[in-house]
């Protein structure tokens, strides 16, 4: 946009009458200008809160395990929808075939009539496939009529292993790229701050997925990558303002400049994230079971991302500044 | 009025009209005949229902097979030249040859050099004079690696084309994978059998006499091959190891009604070389049984009653019509260069697809209404302009799907919904900045000017980063996830075009017409 000024603005000579009138502007405002919340002062408390939450999430994931989708562990998933609400116990009781070993049944709709049946691990061989065994069991118990097979997915075990590695790599690569970009655009310490904030977002979203027992599949990784790309938005907005203010307020300490900058940009940070959170909430509530965990990861990630650009990225920059000053 | 504003305005109107033209076939079906565009937006399998199959090509096996073929050919040549070999065997990818007469070594080396350009000698330090070892030439190995996937792709494409699905997709993925998408197919069993079959047809003689041995102890040059199981019973055959012919000499295969006892049979036709060879083989072995082996299973083993010189034959195996049809299909299109392994299978029923579209559209309507209302209430006039840009943005984004033939998946729809939430970011940044400048006492026009200029850096940086993560996502994902990545990246481009440059046209238009003293933001 720079330099793309309207030719009209330049072709018409400014008139003398165009002196700024002291207009009293009245805007509808979320955060009134002049708000001074001491974000920087709160940073140690928030640091503790953040990383404790992450630790809890990771510990939860470690102890309780992740609800891996078959994309990652291999196996078979059958998604069925009954015409009428059916007790989940009945569905579980139906799955008796020995090759179904540990069939996981999860209620995925809101009406209690949609279920995902998952059998993890590779097919154990035999003439009939796992999906056929599931279908046969359901037919035995419920007959042909009252349900509809919506989806059947089978993934080999090798794909799963490769996927886990490439997913981790992709998320790390994205984080690194963001960090390097911010470092190039701003300063190295801003890049480091942004990268740590992103890592924070990913870890926290991961923990939330584990605690909520949301299925972790391919689309969940897509959501995490999107969170990484989008969370930088807020960090960019705040960093951009910090840089601008650093030029303007040469006498102030970095901490003060940061506080002013965060407060000045607070309403736009909240609004930009707010609109994204709004549409993600719509996806989460209305989008249906297929993208439920995807929308959940986005929702959590965006909320955490907004928080982290204020409470994680800036403190890191401040800390690095302090180290530099001490040297 | 400025020319620049006019041209830019006209450009956006033209884009909007173009997008509308492109989208008509998607929503009006069928589009009127005079309409210039007839391609509706392609829906992913998760939205229209169907089967997605991912196969891995077993490259190692393909290489082993090639070495095997070379070895068999070498054995044949040696027999022809009456060079006795004590043993010929394959160890890994190397053919080991032990000559009965050590003096023939030079002759064999010459033969291989002349007739087997794809083989290179492997030096073996402690080998005896009569021992030779050959392996595939590195260039040949590379050629195989490059070609196997492509060959398999071509064969599967032909098989699927003759299977009768509307708009199937058969695509290569990576260096050793093949994706098959079959819209509308709910029960993929038959398709899987058709695709997964290697369809290697071999003709071997059934062993007889004392050298045949027994099923438990087959003779030295005899192997046990299972027969087709019928009514739960499975007979095995003792056949000679030597392959007399393979199916690569077939030119055609079709279904035929055999006798009542035979049922459906598959009739095959040899090419000229095949006819001649088959004639020779059958002449030399009248009275013996010829095993017709498909993918390591004896389909039938008829007795050769007389020399067959007509260049035709039949396979009988008590097929029903579809079985016979599929067998003819795979024989016609040739054997796969390597076995395929089914890695992934996803089937979506049509009801889920429709449901997903409905839910996706509902989230879109609710999400965008909320955002539009918020912008209107919070930023009033500025919000209205941003909302206009947002609607144009969606139009262009969806129009791009129609124009470039991208496939729209459920995550793709989610990407469009998400774009709504992200696209207004630029407007929020600009409008907030304009507000700030107004508070400092600037005039409307100066505030707008400064708002755009100062907000640009943050807009650029935040969009570049999201675009980068979209690219990484595209690189990482497949299928629907890629659809999401495409939507995300396209959405960034369209929202920059509309939200930043498009709204600027409106403001330039407003400021150029009259002296703008107030701006509603």
Structure, described:
The complex is a heterodimer of chains A (327) and B (521). In chain A, 62% of the residues lie in helices and 9% in strands. Chain A is an alpha+beta fold. Chain A has two domains: 40-68 and 159-326, Multidrug efflux transporter AcrB transmembrane fold (Up-down Bundle), CATH 1.20.1640.10; 75-155, 2-Layer Sandwich (Alpha-Beta Plaits), CATH 3.30.70.100. Chain A has a four-stranded antiparallel beta sheet with strand order 2-3-1-4. Chain B has 521 residues and is α+β, with helices and mostly antiparallel strands. Chain B is 52% helix and 21% strand. Chain B contains twelve helices and 19 strands. Chain B has helices at 3-27, 45-48, 59-80, 105-115, 138-161, 189-196, 272-284, 321-333, 350-404, 410-439, 444-476, 480-513; strands at residues 42-43, 50-57, 85-91, 94-99, 119-121, 131-136, 169-173, 177-183, 201-205, 222-230, 233-240, 245-246, 250-257, 264-270, 290-294, 297-300, 312-319, 340-348, 407-408. In chain B, the strands form six sheets. Chain B has a four-stranded antiparallel beta sheet with strand order 7-8-2-18. In chain B, strands 3-4-6-5 form a four-stranded antiparallel beta sheet. Chain B has a four-stranded antiparallel beta sheet with strand order 12-9-15-16, covered by helices on one side. In chain B, helix 9 (350-404) crosses helix 10 (410-439), helix 10 runs antiparallel to helix 11 and helix 11 (444-476) packs antiparallel against helix 12. Classes of the chains: A alpha+beta (327), B alpha+beta (521). Chains A and B meet through helix 1, strand 4, helix 6, helix 8 and helix 9 of A and helix 1, strand 18, helix 9, helix 10 and helix 11 of B.
């Amino acid at each position: 946009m720079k330099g793309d000024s309207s030719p009209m603005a330049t072709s018409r000579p400014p008139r003398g009458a165009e002196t700024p009138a002291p207009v009293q502007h009245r805007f509808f405002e979320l955060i009134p200008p002049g708000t001074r919340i001491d974000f920087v002062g709160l940073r140690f408390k928030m640091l503790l809160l953040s990383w404790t939450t992450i630790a809890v999430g990771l510990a939860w994931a470690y102890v309780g395990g992740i609800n891996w989708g078959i994309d990652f562990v291999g196996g078979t998933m059958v998604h069925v929808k009954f015409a009428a609400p059916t007790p989940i116990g009945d569905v579980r009781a139906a799955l008796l075939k020995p090759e179904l070993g540990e069939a996981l049944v999860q209620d995925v709709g809101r009406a209690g009539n949609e279920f995902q049946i998952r059998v993890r691990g590779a097919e154990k061989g035999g003439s009939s496939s796992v999906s056929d065994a599931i279908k046969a069991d359901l037919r035995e118990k419920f007959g042909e009529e009252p349900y509809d097979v919506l989806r059947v997915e089978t993934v080999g075990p090798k794909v799963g292993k490769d996927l886990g590695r490439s997913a981790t790599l992709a998320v790390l690569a994205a984080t690194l790229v963001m960090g390097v970009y911010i470092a190039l655009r701003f300063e190295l310490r801003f890049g480091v701050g942004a990268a740590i904030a992103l890592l924070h977002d990913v870890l926290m979203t991961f923990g939330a997925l584990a605690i909520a027992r949301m299925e972790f599949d391919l689309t969940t990784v897509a959501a995490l990558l999107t969170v990484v790309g989008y969370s930088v938005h807020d960090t960019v907005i705040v960093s951009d303002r910090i840089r601008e203010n650093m030029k303007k307020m040469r006498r102030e300490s970095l901490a003060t400049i940061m506080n002013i900058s965060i407060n000045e940009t607070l309403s736009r940070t909240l609004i930009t994230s707010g609109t994204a959170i709004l549409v993600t909430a719509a996806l989460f509530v209305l989008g249906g079971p297929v993208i439920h965990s995807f929308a959940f990861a986005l929702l959590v990630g965006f909320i955490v991302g907004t928080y982290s650009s204020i409470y994680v990225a800036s403190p890191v920059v401040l800390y690095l500044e302090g180290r530099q000053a001490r040297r | 009025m400025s020319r620049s504003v006019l041209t830019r305005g006209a450009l956006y109107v033209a884009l909007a009209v173009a997008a509308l033209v492109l989208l008509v076939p998607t929503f009006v079906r069928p589009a009127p005949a005079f309409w210039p565009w007839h391609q509706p937006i392609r829906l992913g399998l998760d939205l229209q229902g169907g089967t997605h199959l991912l196969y891995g090509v077993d490259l190692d096996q393909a290489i082993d097979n090639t070495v095997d073929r070379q070895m068999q050919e070498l054995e044949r040549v040696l027999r022809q030249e009456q060079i006795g070999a004590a043993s010929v065997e394959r160890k890994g990818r190397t053919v080991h040859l032990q000559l009965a007469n050590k003096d023939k070594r030079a002759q064999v080396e010459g033969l291989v050099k002349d007739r087997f350009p794809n083989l290179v000698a492997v030096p073996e330090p402690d080998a005896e004079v009569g021992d030779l070892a050959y392996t595939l030439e590195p260039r040949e190995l590379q050629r195989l690696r490059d070609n196997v996937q492509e060959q398999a792709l071509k064969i599967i494409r032909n098989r699927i084309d003759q299977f009768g699905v509307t708009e199937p997709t058969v695509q290569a993925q990576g260096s050793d994978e093949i994706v098959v998408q079959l819209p509308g197919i709910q029960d993929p069993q038959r398709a899987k059998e058709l695709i997964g079959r290697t369809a290697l047809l071999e003709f071997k003689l059934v062993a007889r006499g004392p050298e045949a041995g027994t099923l438990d102890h087959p003779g030295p040059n005899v192997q046990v091959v299972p027969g087709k199981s019928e009514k739960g019973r499975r007979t095995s055959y003792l056949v000679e190891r030597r392959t007399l012919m393979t199916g690569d000499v077939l030119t055609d295969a079709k279904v035929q009604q055999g006798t009542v006892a035979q049922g459906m049979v598959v009739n095959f036709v040899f090419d000229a070389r095949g006819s001649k060879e088959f004639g020779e083989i059958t002449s030399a072995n009248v009275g013996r049984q010829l095993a017709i082996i498909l993918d390591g299973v004896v389909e039938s083993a008829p007795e050769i009653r007389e020399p067959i010189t007509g260049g035709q034959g039949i396979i009988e195996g008590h097929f029903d019509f579809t079985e016979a049809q599929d067998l003819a299909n795979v024989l016609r299109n040739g054997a796969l260069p390597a076995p395929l392994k089914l890695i992934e299978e996803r089937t979506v029923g049509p009801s889920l697809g429709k449901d997903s579209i409905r839910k996706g559209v509902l989230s879109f309507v609710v999400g965008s209404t909320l955002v539009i209302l918020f912008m209107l209430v919070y930023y009033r006039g500025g919000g209205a302009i941003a909302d206009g840009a947002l609607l144009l943005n969606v139009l262009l984004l969806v129009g791009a799907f129609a124009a470039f033939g991208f496939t729209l998946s459920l995550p793709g729809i989610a990407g469009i919904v998400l774009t709504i939430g992200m696209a207004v970011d630029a407007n929020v940044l600009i409008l907030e900045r304009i507000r700030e400048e107004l508070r400092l006492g600037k005039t409307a026009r100066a505030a707008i000017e400064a708002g755009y200029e100062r907000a640009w850096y943050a807009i650029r940086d935040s969009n570049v980063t999201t675009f980068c993560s979209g690219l990484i996502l595209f690189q990482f994902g497949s299928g629907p996830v890629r659809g999401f990545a495409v939507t995300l990246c396209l959405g960034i481009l369209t929202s920059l075009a509309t939200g930043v440059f498009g709204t600027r046209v409106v403001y330039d238009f407003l400021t150029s017409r009259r002296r703008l003293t107030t701006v509603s933001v």
